[in-house]
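Data deposition worksheet. Section B asks for the primary sequence of the deposited chain exactly as it was used as input, without tags or linkers unless they were present during the calculation. Section C holds the resulting structure in token form. Section D is free text for depositor observations; keep each observation to a single sentence. Incomplete worksheets are returned to the depositor.
Section A, Depositor: J.P.
Section B:
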Amino acid sequence: MNSSFPIAQLSEDHDVLGMELQAWGLIAVLEATEEEVGRERVDEVFDSWGIDVRGLLQRRAWTTLEFAERFMDAMVGLAGEHIVHRAGWRAMSPRYLGPIYPLLRAVGSIRGTIHQIAKQGPRFNKAFHQSVSETGPGQVVLRFVLAPGVEQPRTRHFFTFVRAQAEAVPALFGGRPASVREQQLGRTTEFNVEWDEEGLSLPNWPLYPVSVLAVFIAALAAGVGTGAAVAMSLFGGAATHVFYEARRPSDEALRYLNHAHEYREGLVESARESESRFGDLLEAKAGVEREVAQRTSELKATSEQLAATLDEVRKLSQARTDFFSNVSHELRTPLTLLLSPLGQLVRGQEPPGGYDAALASMERNATRLLNTINQLLDLEQI
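Section C:
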């Protein structure tokens, strides 16, 4: 497991306990990690630390920023970098917001919720001073300034968690996730949060007084006493609010289900197109393989033909060499036998065997030479 912190024993009195961050914020990171890798692997890490980490989380103990970073770094080592971002979104769900969630839905807004995050920050986070500044419609800057005496964080896990929370705020009101840009200036970290107001659900606070008044009037008309009518109206208003909030997630779930269905249909169509393209690619590949096989066969035949032709050329070349060698011999022999006695006669010497024998030899060799030349001329004509 890659970690930015050394694996070492911790002390609850020195390395863990402090007054910088409340440990409850780490519960979302813990539960998200356990869902991905299992409780057993998480406990192996805790056992190596030698402290009761789960007890710290359950007691909502205050810890140091260094321990919170070490904790998130260990969970990232188990599940991956995405786990902190996922936990930040989880922390903004109705389950973690508890009773604050219906209040936000009733009278809250995206801008007001982000202001509340900064306002309520000191209750859970004393390592940073938090503030919000307005920058325009659908846009604010959430600012975190490191408190004096607190060391600069060694990882970006804390800021990843905060960025995910800011992204999730519009989802509380049925909107799309916010766009968050992070910028660090020394000991100050700013989050530029932008969101789209389109598609947001309206607050349901008007339903409460209307339902209370309607139930109160109906109770009085039915002859119920004033005290009972007040109690019934309060109960009716609360019931109306609960019903509306219970129905809204169902409507949103149906809308998301429809989107998921459309997305699924798109995936199916994309899969079909991919399958068709894959079939075309296979067919094209088979065609190329056939073409390559044919070209290879043709090249092989051509190569064999060239080899046979080369062999024939070599044989012809050898035959030509042998032919000229034989012809040269056939021409030189009678010429030599013809010139030798002729030279003796020119010098006035008597050839061996006498003049008659020399003349007969010269005639015979001249006739032989003539026959050889005639044969060469007949061959040239053929």
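Section D:
Residues 226-346 form the longest helix (121 residues).
Residues 250-261 have pLDDT under 50 and may be disordered.
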